[in-house]
C-alpha cells in the first residue's frame, strides 16, 4: 500500500500542447483510473499471497518475487516511461502502457506455474512504469496553469493514495469470494474500458524537441537491481560464501557500475548524475532508499502474519488494514501543512521516528497475538509515519534542483523509494526465512521470523533517520496547498 508522492510538473513540457477536446471531467476520469490501477497493483496482491503460495506451490522466499518482480521493473523503467511520453506522445504511451499492463494482468491471472506468474508481474511492472508518468503529463497538458491544474494534480495524487489504501481490502474481497487470480484478472475489464475511452477521447500531445531515449540505461539499472535482489535471496539457502549467491551479487554490482558509466557518457541520460552533486538531491534520495527499504515491506509481512499465524481469512485481513490505510492517507494529507510550520527536515525525521517506533512495537509479535494488542497500534504508527515522511523528503529533493529539473528529480525520488523497497523486501524476507527455517516452519517460528523482519527494518529506518539528521539541509520548503 505504497502511496506515490506528488510529482512536480516538469518545466520542459511543450507550451504548444493542445487542450483535450474531451470534457475535462472525462480526461480526469480516464487518467486517474489508469493511475489507480498502477498504484493498486503494488498492494492488492499482499493479502492474496498465502493463497498464491498454496495454489502455485511457492516457497517462503519465492513468494517475495510476486511483489518484487513488479516493483523492480516499475522502478527501473519509470524514468524511461516519462521520457517516452514526451518523445512519442502522451496518449500513445498511455495507451501502450495500459495495454501492456492489461494483457500482463490476464497472463498473471491465468498462470499455472510460479515462473509464469512472476513473468507476468514483470511485464505488468513495465506497463505500469510506461503508464504512470504519462497519466500526470496528460493532466498537466490538458488543464491550463493555475487553480484548474492544481486541482487536477491534487485529485491525481489523492487517487494514487486511495489506490494504495484500498488495495488490501480489494485483495481480501476478491481472494475470499472468488480466487487469488481475480486480484489480477479484475484489471482486465477495467483496463479494457479505460483503454477504449483513452483511444476515443484523449488528444495527442508531445514535446517538440527531439531527444534520445535511454533504453540501455533502463535495462541496466533494472537488470542490476534484479541480480542484486536475487543474490540476496540465495544467501538464505546457500550462504554468503556460495557461488549461487556471490555470482549474481557480483554480476548485479557490475551491471549497476555499467549503468553509471553509461549515464555519465550519455547525451540524454535517464538519470543525470550531475544532479547528485546537489546536497538536497543526493541526501534526500539516499534517505528515501533506506526509508523505502524499511517501510515498503510492512504490508507484506503483516499480511503473512495475520493469515499464516492468526488464521485470518483474506477478507478479515483486508478489513484489519483499514485503520492503517486511513493513517497513511491522513499523514499524507496533513504533511504539507505541518511542513510549513515545522520545516521539511523536522517533519521527515518526526515521521520516520513515529514509523520506527511502530516497527519496534510490531517486532514483539508472537503466536498469541491479538488484533487490538498486536496489529492495530503499531500498524497505525508505522503507516502514519510513512505518510508524514514521504512528502517532506520529496520536497527537500526538488528544492535543490533547477525549475527545469523538477519533474526529473521528483521521478528520481519515486524510483529511489521503489528500488529501496525492492532491496529491502529481499533482505528482510531472507532474514525472516532464516528464522522460520530454524524453527521448522511452525506457527511460533513464523511469528518469530516476521517479528525479526520488523526489528531489522526498524534498524534500517534508524539509519535513515541518522542520515536525515546529518545530511538533509534545514530549510522550509514551499508546498502548494492546492
From TrEMBL:
Keywords attached to this entry: Antibiotic resistance, Cell membrane, Membrane, Transmembrane, Transmembrane helix, Transport
PROSITE patterns: MFS, SUGAR_TRANSPORT_1
A Pfam family that the UniProt record links to this protein: MFS_1
Main subcellular location: membrane
Membrane-topology descriptor: Multi-pass membrane protein
Keyword Transferase: no
InterPro entries registered for this protein in UniProt: EmrB-like, MFS, MFS_dom, MFS_trans_sf, Sugar_transporter_CS
Major facilitator superfamily (MFS) profile domain ranges (all copies): 27-476
Regions crossing the membrane: 21-49, 61-81, 93-111, 123-141, 153-174, 180-203, 215-233, 239-262, 283-302, 342-363, 375-398, 450-472
Localisation per UniProt entry: Cell membrane
UniProt xrefs under NCBIfam families: efflux_EmrB
Identification of the protein by name: MFS transporter
Amino acid at each position: 500500500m505504497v502511496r506515490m508522492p506528488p510529482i512536480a510538473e516538469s518545466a520542459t513540457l511543450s507550451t504548444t500542447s493542445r487542450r483535450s477536446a474531451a470534457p475535462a471531467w472525462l480526461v480526469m476520469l480516464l487518467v486517474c483510473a489508469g493511475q489507480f490501477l498502477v498504484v493498486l497493483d503494488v498492494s492488492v496482491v499482499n493479502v492474496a499471497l498465502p493463497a498464491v503460495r498454496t495454489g502455485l506451490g511457492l516457497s517462503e522466499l519465492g513468494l517475495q518475487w510476486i511483489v518484487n518482480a513488479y516493483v523492480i521493473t516499475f522502478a527501473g523503467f519509470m524514468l524511461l516511461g516519462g521520457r517516452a511520453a514526451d518523445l512519442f506522445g502522451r496518449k500513445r504511451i498511455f495507451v501502450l502502457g495500459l495495454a501492456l499492463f492489461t494483457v500482463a494482468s490476464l497472463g498473471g491471472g491465468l498462470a499455472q506455474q510460479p515462473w509464469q506468474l512472476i513473468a507476468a508481474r514483470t511485464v505488468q511492472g513495465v506497463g505500469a512504469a510506461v503508464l504512470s508518468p504519462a497519466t500526470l503529463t496528460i493532466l498537466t497538458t490538458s488543464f491550463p496553469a493555475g487553480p484548474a491544474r492544481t486541482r487536477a494534480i491534487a485529485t491525481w495524487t489523492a487517487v494514487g493514495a486511495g489506490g494504495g489504501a484500498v488495495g488490501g481490502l480489494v485483495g481480501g474481497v476478491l481472494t475470499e469470494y472468488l480466487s487469488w487470480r481475480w486480484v489480477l484478472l479484475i484489471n482486465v475489464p477495467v483496463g479494457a474500458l479505460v483503454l477504449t475511452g483513452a483511444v476515443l477521447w484523449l488528444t495527442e500531445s508531445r514535446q517538440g524537441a527531439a531527444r534520445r531515449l535511454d533504453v540501455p540505461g533502463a535495462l541496466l539499472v533494472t537488470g542490476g537491481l534484479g541480480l542484486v535482489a536475487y543474490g540476496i535471496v540465495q544467501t538464505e539457502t546457500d550462504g554468503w560464501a556460495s557461488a549461487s549467491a556471490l555470482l549474481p551479487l557480483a554480476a548485479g554490482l557490475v551491471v549497476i557500475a555499467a549503468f553509471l558509466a553509461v549515464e555519465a557518457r550519455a547525451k540524454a541520460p535517464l538519470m543525470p548524475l550531475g544532479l547528485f552533486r546537489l546536497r538536497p538531491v543526493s541526501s534526500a534520495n539516499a534517505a528515501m532508499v533506506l526509508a523505502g527499504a524499511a517501510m515498503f515491506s510492512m504490508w507484506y509481512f503483516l499480511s503473512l502474519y495475520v493469515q499464516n499465524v492468526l488464521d485470518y481469512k483474506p477478507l478479515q485481513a483486508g478489513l484489519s488494514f483499514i485503520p492503517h490505510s486511513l493513517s497513511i492517507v491522513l499523514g499524507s494529507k496533513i504533511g504539507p501543512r505541518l511542513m510549513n510550520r515545522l520545516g521539511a527536515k523536522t517533519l521527515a525525521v518526526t515521521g520516520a521516528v513515529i514509523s520506527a517506533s511502530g516497527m519496534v512495537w510490531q517486532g514483539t509479535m508472537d503466536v498469541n497475538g491479538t488484533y487490538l494488542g498486536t496489529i492495530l497500534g503499531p500498524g497505525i504508527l508505522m503507516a502514519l509515519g510513512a505518510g508524514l515522511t514521504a512528502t517532506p523528503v520529496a520536497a527537500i529533493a526538488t528544492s535543490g534542483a533547477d525549475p527545469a529539473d523538477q519533474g526529473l528529480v521528483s521521478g528520481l525520488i519515486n524510483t529511489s523509494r521503489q528500488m529501496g523497497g525492492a532491496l529491502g523486501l529481499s533482505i528482510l524476507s531472507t532474514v525472516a526465512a532464516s528464522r522460520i527455517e530454524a524453527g521448522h516452519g511452525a506457527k511460533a517460528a513464523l511469528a518469530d521470523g516476521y517479528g525479526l523482519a520488523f526489528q531489522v527494518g526498524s534498524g534500517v529506518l534508524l539509519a535513515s533517520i541518522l542520515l536525515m539528521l546529518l545530511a538533509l539541509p534545514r530549510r522550509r520548503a514551499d508546498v502548494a496547498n492546492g
